[in-house]
Amino acid sequence: MSTLNSTYPYLAYMSTTRKPSKDKTAKRSTAKALAAPAPVATAAPAPRLKRQRINVPSTPKPNKHLALAETDAKAPPSEPPTGLMQQWSYNSGPDPISGWGVDSVATALAQHRRGQFQLSGILAEDMAASPWVAHCIEMLAQTFTTTPMVVVPAGRGEARRCADFVREVMPDILPMSTIRDLHRNFEMMGTSAAALDWNEYRDGKDRVWLPTIKPWQPQLTYYQQFADADSIDMGALIAQTLNKGLVRVDPGNARWLLFSQSNLKPWLRGAVNLLGEVFLGYSFNFRDSMAFQDRFGRGILKFFHPVDWKDEEILVAAQTIRAGSGGGVLPLARGRGGEKLMDLDLVQAQGAGFKTFESTHIRMRDLILITMLGQNMTSAGSTGGFAQARVHENGFWRKLEQRGASFGDAALTTTIQPVEGSSPKVLRQWQPRDGVLRTQLTKWIALWNFGDMDLAPYIYWDVTAPADVTEQQETSAKGAEAAAKAMQAVSMAVKSLTEAGLVAGKDFDVGYMLEQAGVRMKRVNGEAAR
Hints:
The protein is of the alpha+beta class. It has helices at residues 24-35, 102-113, 118-128, 131-140, 142-145, 158-173, 176-189, 271-296, 311-325, 355-373, 377-380, 386-407, 436-450, 466-499, 510-516, and strands at 149-152, 191-203, 206-215, 221-225, 235-240, 246-248, 256-260, 300-306, 328-334, 410-417, 425-432, 458-461. Strands 3-2-7 form a 3-stranded antiparallel beta sheet. Helix 9 (311-325) links the parallel strand 8 and strand 9 (328-334). The longest helix is centred in the C-terminal third of the chain and has 34 residues, at 466-499.
């Protein structure tokens, strides 16, 4: 056990951890059974007429009334699981420079598409070290580095305290280095798994449980059919561990986090599957171009020597000249009178075959950029008009929005706002929803530190394009201006009615007048501030 008072100052004013909430329904039923009086014999009541039942759809409940616990599910554990999930560094595989060939990449991709990631995990690591793929991963990581992380409480009171606590500890339990590892596996493999080790920290009477998140190497996982009857295809991801053998990755059981690009075969959407052949072609083209330049980019020197020189003398002289010039040296014999006995002419190719290296490089580069970033203008510096640049920028932001939706507890909603005298505007806003972090991580932090998993906040990254932010600010400003004008008009109307002898609250309703003018004076219980 360790102390977090210096690391987490929140413990200084955090109350002693409460025990997890028990079944309140059972308590109420027991209390009712004890309080019920003995039955008294009375006359049978007159039969009541049954009302005709009308099927009216129920009103959807707010998020604060929705429980994360499943129906007829087992009671959550009172304490986190003990023990550690350990893995080892898997480094075996082909040489990253010249080891990947057509046969090895074909084998890796064939196994990958069948759910076996031992070879494709190594291939993904080598691809992630390639300059253009690494650039794409870094650009997509702007989802977490350039956009604000938002923590929204699930309600008021205790939920706000839980949100404050989670907001404070998130940089420690999910640092940027861990996010980058999770994101890299997410991009390259289509899925990203992480083990959770729970640690207890005490400070006097106070106690907190916090997880250690361990991104799992993809080459230590595989997909097994008929391993989970509740999954979409009755399969599950299996992880190889050092101390527990083969373990099923069961997200939501307080032991695993799992981010996926889709529900059905998410590994098919990984860059290793989409761009494995492109990476191989890019590598071959680069090495062939280097070999071509090494062979034909440097000159060949003619070295004339007397015909009676010994071979050892010719070899030493040729090596000396080559070492000094850096190019090739061709020894040619001459007679004693200086006449040429040997000669050689360089036959130059008149075609433009050398240009294919650059065109192939550009084609492979654009395939990588467009597949991963949705565009190539912002990375390759292509020329084009302003409208084309906006299209490419929007394509890149759509990619960032997809990452924000996959990692955060929010859904991107699109609304259309009518504009008088102009075309309607499209507003894109994030709305809190249950996501991976809330259903697999923070609900356990809320349960074991605050006694109720429904207190878990919503955590997401506000991936909103700058143009959308400007429109939202303009819309808010116009809304505030319209509300001010409406309130001014209502106040003048109230003044006129009062001067006419009418009494507010009796002869007219000020609140109703404001409501008709589009101004709401009170906030509904549980509604978050905008």
